[in-house]
From TrEMBL, chains A, B, C, D:
It comes from Austwickia chelonae NBRC 105200. SUPFAM superfamilies: Glyceraldehyde-3-phosphate dehydrogenase-like, C-terminal domain (SSF55347), NAD(P)-binding Rossmann-fold domains (SSF51735). This is Putative inositol 2-dehydrogenase. The lineage of its organism: Bacteria, Bacillati, Actinomycetota, Actinomycetes, Micrococcales. PANTHER family: BINDING ROSSMANN FOLD OXIDOREDUCTASE, PUTATIVE (AFU_ORTHOLOGUE AFUA_2G10240)-RELATED, NAD(P)-BINDING ROSSMANN-FOLD SUPERFAMILY PROTEIN-RELATED. InterPro entries: Gfo/Idh/MocA-like_OxRdtase_N, GFO_IDH_MocA-like_dom, Myo_inos_IolG, NAD(P)-bd_dom_sf. Residues 128-247 form the GFO/IDH/MocA-like oxidoreductase domain.
Amino acid sequence: MLNIAVIGAGRIGTVHAAAVAAHPGTRLTWIADPFGDGAARLAAEHGAKSTLAVDEALHAEDVDAVIIGSPTPLHVDHILAAAAAGKKIMCEKPVDLDIARVDACIAQLGDRADRVMIGFNRRFDPGFAEIQARAAAGEIGDLEQVTIISRDPAAPPASYVAQSGGIFRDMTIHDFDMARFLLGDIVEVNAVGQHLDPQIEAAGDFDAAVVTLTAASGAVATIINNRHCPSGYDQRLEVCGSTGMLEAANHRATLVRYSGAEYTEAAAPYLNFFLERYTAAYTTELSAFVTAVEHDTPITPNVHDGRAALAIADAATHSARTGERVRLS
Amino acid sequence: MLNIAVIGAGRIGTVHAAAVAAHPGTRLTWIADPFGDGAARLAAEHGAKSTLAVDEALHAEDVDAVIIGSPTPLHVDHILAAAAAGKKIMCEKPVDLDIARVDACIAQLGDRADRVMIGFNRRFDPGFAEIQARAAAGEIGDLEQVTIISRDPAAPPASYVAQSGGIFRDMTIHDFDMARFLLGDIVEVNAVGQHLDPQIEAAGDFDAAVVTLTAASGAVATIINNRHCPSGYDQRLEVCGSTGMLEAANHRATLVRYSGAEYTEAAAPYLNFFLERYTAAYTTELSAFVTAVEHDTPITPNVHDGRAALAIADAATHSARTGERVRLS
Amino acid sequence: MLNIAVIGAGRIGTVHAAAVAAHPGTRLTWIADPFGDGAARLAAEHGAKSTLAVDEALHAEDVDAVIIGSPTPLHVDHILAAAAAGKKIMCEKPVDLDIARVDACIAQLGDRADRVMIGFNRRFDPGFAEIQARAAAGEIGDLEQVTIISRDPAAPPASYVAQSGGIFRDMTIHDFDMARFLLGDIVEVNAVGQHLDPQIEAAGDFDAAVVTLTAASGAVATIINNRHCPSGYDQRLEVCGSTGMLEAANHRATLVRYSGAEYTEAAAPYLNFFLERYTAAYTTELSAFVTAVEHDTPITPNVHDGRAALAIADAATHSARTGERVRLS
Amino acid sequence: MLNIAVIGAGRIGTVHAAAVAAHPGTRLTWIADPFGDGAARLAAEHGAKSTLAVDEALHAEDVDAVIIGSPTPLHVDHILAAAAAGKKIMCEKPVDLDIARVDACIAQLGDRADRVMIGFNRRFDPGFAEIQARAAAGEIGDLEQVTIISRDPAAPPASYVAQSGGIFRDMTIHDFDMARFLLGDIVEVNAVGQHLDPQIEAAGDFDAAVVTLTAASGAVATIINNRHCPSGYDQRLEVCGSTGMLEAANHRATLVRYSGAEYTEAAAPYLNFFLERYTAAYTTELSAFVTAVEHDTPITPNVHDGRAALAIADAATHSARTGERVRLS
């Protein structure tokens, strides 16, 4: 039984706390959040202890592992503090918005960097994981082209956008990791940004984009992003190989279809957002973390994967702004 | 080149005339219809001759074969007259509403009865024909259960219903033939009728029904009929065997799907009715007729098939009225 | 927090124990099973107490409600004993195979019969429940025809079949309840049985069947059953109304589709059987029970519903054996 | 009745000849092809006259309009000769591989350039045309992102590739026209080429590519091309707007699906190539041409559209080779 502290009682911390509480191999012992009464409320819900002092949870004896769901600028500090306290670590993506800080973090972690899990939850979605496994097993031959459609249901507030690091570091970073999950190393990045909503443009960001990534293998991944989608959270994946193709469709709450006089076989809108869409992924992600901790084995995705995705995001940002294609070293 | 006369310039005669005119192996030479100027109009459209005297067309020298699309009560007369004139024959379904008249017709045709084609057009639908062929080739093992969903877009007028012979002889007869096409001889019939529209009930008929047919093989076909369907002409087929299943979906004009805020992947309504839905079937039906005529070989479905479907319709009528299951001899 | 004892540590008892253990509003306190060490093992897994004496659990102070998953012949005894002990009751279907015993049970329960839940789990499947709710809200007009496809992945052993009460009381009873869930009272039953597997025929049972049920409203439900299906547990529902249609498709583990040179858009086989297919249904079923217990309100489906489904099963058994249509009083 | 000469008796000329012969408003009078006996054979099939001298057909009195299906390098000559002879013109794409020649052709045509139809047949595919019409009518709000998947079933021979003008001028040009059909003027082009097949690389061409086109409106179209696809001719379109999405799926010969023990709902491979996939498009394209000729109205797509698509192809070629984004003037 792994005793776990969750750092951050916000939206994602709440998801992790529930997953830990429900998991047969984990016990939720602490919730830490310096702001307001979020930690206390969340802890009460699950019969855990709470604190406003993150350090208290990081050093508690009944904590074996820490799940970091704090604001992005605090991730590196919390990772390093948890590591110093000898705890196992899972941290939400991105590691940081500044690749120099990520590099410093990796340097300080040393050998243990490949034990610090980064929460690219989509790798654990049963459908995407199935596609990756079947493709890796050779079922569709040599991989040639990957298409990732990734649209959020609605744009975040402009205030969020302004400090998000931009669409590529904030939103597309998940898709960059998915491309790496499927195709391995990326060597070239090319991004076209769109300004659809003037408020987001005013906040200095794109709200839609198309990115092409060329892998070392010669395969190309195309990522199509939009900050809004009328039908919900549009999350699709298509992997084309030399002998076949695997694709994953959008999810709805049920498989019910309606037919009437005006249209037929109509399904419900997609599940609204990541909490609903990736419920199963958060559970299997946690299981993967628990297993790796139990055996003290390297874990994937780890801080190195977090760094690689951020490097692509930096390149995409540059490409979209300048129109230049960027080669990654 | 086969010279063809079409008897009857109504809705179905118009379909056949167009198919003959477009077919590379046939020439439309005559249209005969005793009522009004339908024959003249239809003939003008295709550059054929027209007559109000059916006999004139039946005996014309430039007529090798006759397609009979006259009202049902005239079918037998026209079949026998055309046979007497030495012409090849395709006749719309049903042969007649009275099985005694069908038997007399068969007796008079003698050896040639298996050369007189009956227009069960659905056997020639590319999808249904593919299913029959793949099932017959053993692709899904022993056939166990067939489900035929067959719903018209809207009920005909009560006046039509009153002289139609009833839903089983008029509408379900196509499905009875489809069951025989897939399963061969039927030995037991069980029908449940429904009265949904009081006007059709007043006309003495059911307007919906569920019929189960037991084949000599032990397989069971279920037919679900309705005189109306909000989404159009609902024509589906599902054949379950011991090792697999084959199914055919409804057709729309295009494969376009719409997704919006309220629903997703919505298709158009089904094609409205048989002229649109079975366009391809009428063409391949004609080709099958032409080929059989050219080689003077027996043809399927023929008058015997027309009789067999009518016998099932009679049994279903009895079953639905009395609640008794009917064994066919 | 509702303290619950589970009676029976077999396959279905295991499902209920896990659901109770995971439910935020229930506590699993006892597992009782007189045979072997099943109760001890299952209790250990969930930190509950166990006993070989069912009575001990039925009378324990830390038991508010009992979930009965014992063999069918014991259901009535356990229901009555639990009721005598003042416990709330959920019992697996069927109540009993003998309608006289069910009537006696109802008589003895008196006013409380509508508080004893019967485990027709499919009513709680999110897809089927959505269809029922939307249909009941009038979204598709007057209900006209219901089609229930229900095929098991593989037949049970002949030994099970021999004491199962027959396909209609054992398997179709779920579909009878689904028809009642959607259409209300059934007034006429008509069943056609099939003998596909000689071993099951030797055991005195049908292994496939088509049943048509006429509702008091005039709507007809068609149930197509088969004890085996090559593609898994085939569970589909289609409800046609005067203005529209609602349908629920089969479930797979993921929504991944494969396309290759020989075929395209191929999905995985269906989820294999009821434990996988109806996982969500068992959870929502338990929630419905908990809510009804908390408010001491009547619950649906209850023992009266169990009796009604059994009466249809008896009628179907008679109809399939004799070929007679059966009117329910 | 429009009298039509078809220039070129190759694969595409054969398609046009058949469409003309079957069309109720056209008469196929001449086939001209200087090489071998292709013209004679094709003419015999349709009861038309044939000649080895293209000029003879261009100047024949019983020719009102000319459909040019000759090799690409001859297109401009044939367009100008037909125009000089006072004939109406439909010409296969591309106008030419050299934009200077296209400009010269347009200059010489003068006012009549917008009456010379270019055979971008996909605009006339019923599904794509429906999407364009519904999108143009505002059904999905402001257009934001278009995704065009366009994969051929198998690469042409390296000899063809070598003189094809490259993938962008030969294959993608259809997709460039589709993007313009949906989004109007394109202002920026960005192309990433792939070398999958060494033989095609040796021939100096890419055999797969991803192109992003930015429209003047700010919308972005993504084109994903591959010279081969295991499942057939992969032709999909997805248009996302601010309030909804429209998509067109791949076509098969029938809508039959197979389910068995290993996979379920498997469809056939896609229709193999353009002749099968775009049969309906060739017919409606011809109708559009006939209507425009009858009313002497401008037609779309015309030589200006052919030039615009070629300009995008030139830009894509440059972009893929240099890695530079290209702005169109």
